[in-house]
Specification:
- The chain is mostly helical.
- Helix content is about 75%, strand content about 0%.
- Helix 15 (about 270-290) packs across helix 17 (about 330-345).
Length: about 400
């Protein structure tokens, strides 16, 4: 039974969590440099961890409510030591996710424990990434969309877990903890096959930070990706049909319309940010260097990740990887925070207040638009809290 419909109370619950996320992430970053306010920073981080995890863990889940794939994940968890139902073989082939389920299932048959651990870990990775890559001076309004990515995890639990591993891997590259970075990369690839291209952002960032890459070459590589995307699609379909990548990936690629207009509508913010970053790289670096060497290093790393994300846009469109825009969603939000700061930092207080009001309305509108485009297919409404 499909009970999905647009529900205003559910929308308000989601919007509330989006605002809580923006406020708590802002508090974590703004207070990170002041020892006397560490309590406030930690309280914000713990509050966000508890609130997001609680609402995700104790939502009602059934067929047609609580996320399209959520019930399948519950059944997979409950039967992770047995034989898998038809259609679950592709989940079992991702061995990292399989063993996460097996280990937790040894301790308890209650799927709420699995949800609490996984969603808690996803929230933790978002907090860690934002704390690492955002400066207390930046504009935090774009982070209201961080909850949209988390909300997508109500449906795509496994890919959100793969994203969490990628985020932690990127953090460890910037901290020069390369063994941990590559361990996270492997965990991501073994959690969801769709994450493999995006997990490569970790060695890409490692190489770029050690050797350096000029912007013009990255832009050229992005252009070449657009040219070869169609040919990659043909070879991918042939490869998937022989190697059986779960069946769905071949279907996604075969049904990809290749419509540029459709891709732009779905990933408008991704395309827009790519254009702004290409045109503003020098300006962004000039501003970043004023705030110290450490800030410049973090900004350079964020730029490299965003360029890598930009290079994969045509591949996502050609192969029909509809969840592809999600994998580096949080780095893009951090970049939006930086870009808005760079272009509004010299405004006077009144003009900045007006601009921030318009920016906030825009991001709320985008959050609403994206939710409206996905809530029905993802069974995200109505939201019903089901603690008992």
């Amino acid at each position: 039974m499909n009970s999905t419909y647009w529900d205003n109370s559910s929308f308000l619950i989601y919007l509330m969590q989006a605002f809580v996320g923006m406020y708590c992430l802002r508090t974590v970053v703004k207070n990170s440099n002041f020892t006397k306010r560490n309590l406030s920073r930690n309280f914000a981080a713990v509050s966000l961890l508890i609130i997001w995890t609680f609402f995700a863990t104790f939502r009602m889940v059934s067929w047609g409510i609580g996320g399209t794939d959520a019930m399948g994940y519950i059944l997979f968890f409950e039967n992770s030591w047995g034989t898998y139902d038809e259609g679950m073989e592709h989940i079992a082939s991702d061995v990292a996710y399989l063993w996460i389920n097996k280990i937790i299932r040894l301790c308890t048959p209650n799927y709420h424990v699995l949800f609490a651990i996984v969603y808690g870990f996803i929230t933790y990775s978002i907090i860690r990434f934002v704390k690492q890559f955002c400066s207390r001076y930046w504009n935090f309004i774009p982070l209201i969309l961080a909850f949209y990515l988390f909300l997508r995890g109500y449906n795509t639990l496994r890919s959100n877990l793969a994203i969490a591993f990628i985020l932690l891997g990127i953090i460890n590259v910037t901290q020069k903890k390369y063994k941990w970075a590559y361990l996270y990369m492997i965990c991501s690839a073994l959690t969801h096959k769709a994450g493999i291209p995006f997990a490569l952002s970790i060695p890409f960032l490692h190489f770029a930070m050690v050797r350096g890459l000029k912007t013009k070459y990255l832009v050229l590589a992005s252009g070449l990706m657009f040219m070869i995307a169609t040919y990659v699609r043909e070879y991918f379909i042939a490869f998937a049909s022989v190697n059986d990548l779960g069946g769905s990936y071949e279907s996604y690629a075969m049904n990809a319309t290749g419509s540029l207009m459709s891709s732009i509508v779905e990933c408008f913010m991704q395309y827009l940010l790519a254009i702004i970053v290409v045109l503003s790289t020098r300006k962004i670096k000039r501003v970043a260097i004023k705030y110290g060497k450490d800030t410049l290093i973090m900004v350079n790393a964020l730029l490299y990740v965003c360029y890598f994300d930009m290079m994969l846009i045509p591949i996502n469109a050609a192969l029909g990887i509809w969840r592809g825009y999600e994998f580096l969603y949080i780095p893009r939000l951090c970049m939006w925070s930086l870009v808005i700061f760079v272009y509004t930092r010299n405004y006077d207080r009144t003009l900045k207040c007006i601009m921030n009001s318009f920016i906030l309305l825009y991001f709320i509108a985008w959050f609403t638009f994206r939710l409206y485009r996905t809530y029905e297919a993802s069974d995200l409404m109505p939201y019903i809290l089901n603690v008992f």
